[in-house]
Amino acid sequence: VPTQIEASKMLNALSVDNFAIPGDAGFPLNAHYAPPQSRADAEYLRIYLTQVRQELAVRLVERLYADGTGKPSKCWMAFQRRFMNRSL
């Protein structure tokens, strides 16, 4: 079970990791979303989604370790299943 600092580092690394956006071959919902119209739009979308992922990582760690002991909350750790090929 990772400590709060380890979890922050792991989630921050995942948040800046390369990911697919609409129009990329690996994007799972390509049938439902139109690809960006230009390379600049694609880069703007990627930057925006990276910021969303970073903020989500910060808020998730705050919620998981809210009791101040440095250990994750038992209630939140019940959700340890794999989701989209990732696990906590």
What does this molecule look like?
By secondary structure, the chain is mostly helical. It is 48% helix and 0% strand. The chain has three helices and no strands. It has helices at 4-15, 39-64, 74-77. Helix 1 packs antiparallel against helix 2 (39-64). The longest helix is centred in the middle third of the chain and has 26 residues, at 39-64.
Order of helices and strands: HHH
Strand content: under 5%
Individual helix count: 3
| DSSP strand count | 0
Mean of residue pLDDT? 86
Helix and strand composition category:
mainly alpha
Q: Compute the gyration radius: what is it?
A: 16 Å
Low-pLDDT runs: none
Please give the largest β-sheet.
Answer: none
Assign an overall shape. elongated
The level of helicity is 40-55%
The end-to-end span amounts to 9 Å
How would you briefly describe this protein structure?
The protein has 88 residues and is mainly alpha-helical.
Q: How would you summarize the topology of this molecule?
A:
Blueprint: H1 4-15, H2 39-64, H3 74-77
Helix pairs in contact: 1-2
Overview features:
88 residues, mainly alpha
